[in-house]
Design brief:
Elements: E1 5-9, H1 17-25, H2 36-44, E2 54-56, E3 58-63, E4 66-71, E5 73-76, H3 87-95, E6 103-106, E7 119-120, H4 123-139, E8 144-147, H5 152-160, E9 164-174, H6 184-189, H7 193-208, E10 211-217, H8 223-239, H9 248-257, E11 262-269, E12 272-282, E13 287-295, H10 302-317, E14 322-327, E15 338-348, H11 351-377
Parallel strand pairs: 6-8, 13-14
Antiparallel strand pairs: 1-3, 2-5, 3-4, 4-7, 5-6, 8-15, 9-14, 9-15, 10-11, 11-12, 12-13
Helix pairs in contact: 2-9, 4-5, 7-10, 8-9
Length: about 400
């Protein structure tokens, strides 16, 4: 690492946006959630700050005045908003009177979206960045360091450096390049008959309730629509007796700085909005991500329509090739989203805990493989030429 000048930043705003975004654009799996404006908005809106348990310590590696690598890094005083659960690890540390928090976390706050995390110009600088990450955790005396929802390039580097790898599952729809579907009806035609029937029944219940949808992209999402969405977003958290992670100001900043990455589906009955579902998009890569939703009242099957069927139909019509449904949710399979492996990497300072966690991850990984195999056997889609359903 001696050829690099390593910097630790107490805020993403300390890093020039033009350098950060140019580096992000070079990655194999960039997402808009690592855009400088997105990360900065999380902090400046008060959503991800030391006060909320997210203390920015962004890492950058420079050479001859050029940014060669960068990492969105936080010191965490809890494990909320991560979607890779390590509460048991924290509890084990505390039972042995060892502090688990603060820990180092390389992740996008509140955003379980897979993609490149170790932003780097080449594999050499990616490896150097991973080393700098672990070195910083050691230097600060932290219990552990974690990198969540990484891509294959990140995983290869971290595994080679001895990090523990943890597997997870999400549910995504991916366009088949050899046999693409041209509309939602064609997507359904590839499913088993009983799955098609269930989806048709769910959609009919929403239509029979007098609900229709309008779609608003980018700058067409005006302040009134953002206000309505945010009220419903907060309502979803309130229904689960919790508080929303993101502030209204965060979404105002998204509307101002990154409008091109948002699409809002608004459910209306008798002309009045009754629900909203927000997805993020990247037209350059053809990827879309389900994010947040909420409703003014319970309407049977409206959640499925707003969060899966409407976005999927829109993505297919718009030529997108991927729609990610977010963390957890086996119920997404019956609605056309299939299991996809995710991965995170973990460095544990104490060798005794590292050994115990490594053993746990080996058992968990075996169970995860069996679970994934079981899910694939339950695919809603017919097998080509062998299942006439």
């Amino acid at each position: 690492m001696s050829e690099y000048r390593i910097q630790v930043h107490d805020s993403p705003t300390e890093i020039p946006a033009v350098h950060w975004d140019a580096l992000l654009a070079q990655q194999k799996h960039p997402t808009p959630f690592l855009r400088h404006a997105y990360l900065s908005a999380l902090e400046t809106s008060g959503s991800a700050t030391p006060a909320t348990g997210w203390d920015p310590k962004f890492l950058t590696l420079w050479h001859n005045g050029n940014l060669h690598a960068g990492l969105a890094l936080y010191l965490k005083s809890h494990s909320y908003g991560e979607y890779v659960f390590d509460w048991a690890w924290a509890d084990a540390h505390h039972r042995h009177r060892l502090p688990y928090y603060p820990k180092a976390l390389a992740a996008i706050p509140f955003t379980p979206v897979p993609g490149t995390r170790l932003l780097a110009r080449d594999e050499h600088s990616r490896a150097a960045l991973a080393e700098a990450f672990r070195h910083l955790a050691r230097e600060l005396g932290l219990s552990s360091a974690h990198l969540l929802f990484m891509d294959a390039c990140d995983e290869a580097v971290l595994a080679s450096q001895g990090w523990l790898i943890r597997e997870g599952l999400q549910f995504h729809w991916t366009q088949d390049p050899e046999h693409p579907v041209m509309d939602f009806a064609q997507l359904l035609s590839g499913m088993h008959r009983h799955k098609r029937k269930n989806i048709a029944q769910e959609r009919r219940r929403v239509a029979d309730a007098g609900v229709s949808f309008t779609v608003h992209e980018g700058s067409a999402i005006d302040e009134d629509l953002w206000d309505f969405f945010y009220q419903r977003y907060c309502g979803t958290y309130a229904a689960h007796h919790s508080s929303p992670y993101l502030s209204r100001d965060f979404f105002s900043r998204m509307a101002q700085d990154l409008p091109q990455h948002w699409v809002l589906f608004v459910a209306r009955r008798q002309g009045q909005p009754v629900a909203a579902s927000l997805i993020a998009i990247d037209r350059r890569t053809g990827w879309a991500w389900g994010r947040y939703w909420g409703a003014t009242e319970h309407i049977p099957c409206l959640h499925f329509e707003a969060c899966y069927y409407q976005p999927l139909a829109w993505c297919i019509a718009q030529g997108f090739n991927r729609f990610e449904g977010g963390a957890q949710g086996e119920h997404k399979m019956a609605r056309g989203l299939l299991p996809v492996r995710t991965a995170s990497a973990h460095w544990i300072r104490d060798s005794r805990f590292e050994a115990a966690i490594a053993e746990f991850l080996a058992r968990e990984g075996t169970g995860m493989e069996a679970y994934a195999d079981e899910l694939r056997e339950r695919s809603p889609f017919k097998k080509p030429s062998t299942d006439a359903a």
